[in-house]
Amino acid sequence: MPEYIAPDTSELNEDHIRSALDFLIAVEPDPPPESREEYEAATEPYRQQIATAMATLRSFAEQTQPMTLDQMQADYYGFTNDPRYLVSSDVLAIVCGALSEAWTGVGPWRR
Description:
By secondary structure, the protein is mainly α. It is 59% helix and 0% strand.
């Protein structure tokens, strides 16, 4: 059973973000459920850990310096172009979706 333990959010680095993303990938149901209800049931055991992983992603974005769209995009593309996340379109979609959702509203980042 995958487990996610939040790091100290005052000093987040790329390894912390990869750990959060790896957890989110690990708990994604495979194959994908056919309905939203089935998805929620499959991820229910991880609900709190998912929220914590998403909070880690958001905290990282909030610490981005300089807080510019260019810098945030550079960080985003650094993660989404990481070879470990390019193994399949499903994995890349999880990474892109998690980062975009967590970062929405942080500084200049918009979905």
